[in-house]
Design brief:
Radius of gyration: 22 Å
Structural class: mainly alpha
Number of helices: 9
Largest sheet: none
Number of strands: 0
Distance between the termini: 9 Å
Order of helices and strands: HHHHHHHHH
Helix content: over 70%
Low-confidence stretches: 235-247
Shape: flat
Amino acid sequence: MSFLEHLDELRTRLTISAVAVLVGFLVAFAFSSHVFDFIMKPLQAALPPGGKLVYTEPAEAFLLYLKISALAGTVLAAPVVIWQLWLFIAPGLYQHEKRYAIPFVMLSSFFFVSGAAFSHYLVFPFAWRFFASFNTDYVEFMPRIAPAFSLYSKLMLAMGGVFQMPTLVFFLARMGVVSGRMLFRYTKYAILIIFIVAAIITPGPDVVSQCLVAAPMLMLYAVSILIAWVFGKKRTDEVAPPTEARE
């Protein structure tokens, strides 16, 4: 494909992805009140007795409904977006590599939703309770809904991305880029990088919440080593001829 053909292909994939997100947004907006309760009730439950989230701008609550619908729509459209990503990179792959399309979409979608659920049910509630623990007789925690949701969405998307590690390692291993032996050999460096990433994406400054984020990342790295060991490209695997044409 020429440079202009690549640009045209990129435009097509971005357009389809945008339409999928828009459709997901419309579907989520139709149920926005239920999604709003699903996200906000646990936040309100972590506040001191009688505490509520507040908004100080006239349009803040309405805009929050739009943001929540956009986030939920993105999650709903994730399989389509991932599929479009695969279709964009597929022309640069050999024919025998393209058979991983369906596993790529399924694994990526599964781990993204798993990361989002892990953030919603475990990481964010723990961090939120930590922030609310500083309430005293002199200081009352009255968070605004917009910053609270911004923190929630950033952490959820970050964990959804982190949980893509096994999927990425699976395809890199099948293509012979990485191996289980190599990942195991660099474990100590991976642990250091994982704790650095956990410190960056963790909303709270305490060590406990950072460890709470780092723990699943360490488990995912261990799973990734096992995946690379089992599904990695072996020397006896059939290698495509160098002259095989790329589509």
